[in-house]
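U., I forgot to send this yesterday:
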Amino acid sequence: MPERADYNGVARTDLTTQACDMCRKRKVKCLLPSPENAALSSRCQRCERLNILCTFNSPSKPRGPKRRTEANARSQEPPPDVRYRTDDLCNRGLFKILMQDYLDRLYPLVPIVHRPSFREALRKDQDCEDEGFYAVTLGIAALVVATLASNFSVYKSHAQPLQLSSRKEFVHSCYKKAVLMRSWSYFDQLNFQKFAVSYLFSAAFLQLGDQNWSRMLSVEAMQIARLLKMHLITNYEGLNCIETQLRKKGFWLVFYIYV
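Result:
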């Protein structure tokens, strides 16, 4: 079987596992000595051709995403004199970790937010002022704790751990907070955020095995989706691209509940 070559026609087996200092500085491929010169020189082909010293003194950098350490987690924590609406659930730093765990691990399954704007809103602590966004973050926190059962011990062992003793208690506390913000006219003006809140809590209760709460909230989400006419593509006219994509994803999330 012939060797697979890259776009420059260089066989993969001719590449070094680590580029020499000169090739790394120039950001070019570092090639092993040709077979006829391998016994005479240990320099790479480029250094051999230029007749310069071939060294490997530069330290190699680890690849992949940066690992989240306890120091990184602590760096997210606010000054001790700042109070947040979620402090009776968990410390602000841990709350941000819950949000990040959703984006990293659960978003592909429940893509119910626009990630760039969601991250920006979190950075600005928008949940402190926007009750709709606050309710969404409560739903996300509930979903993360309910779904990532193996992580619950990690959340409980955080420097300032969850205030609740069980996953069920945490989810119910989040839901109670979200419901207490509803006024008598809550369903008079519907939007995608309200659909997202109902769906997130429905999914969270489903992960806990609480079928009654899950079914009640899934019906609520279904009704909001119907009233928003998320099933009618013609009703998307005039919406911005973000809202359009969110509603399309929301429709399919509801659709899969009943399929």
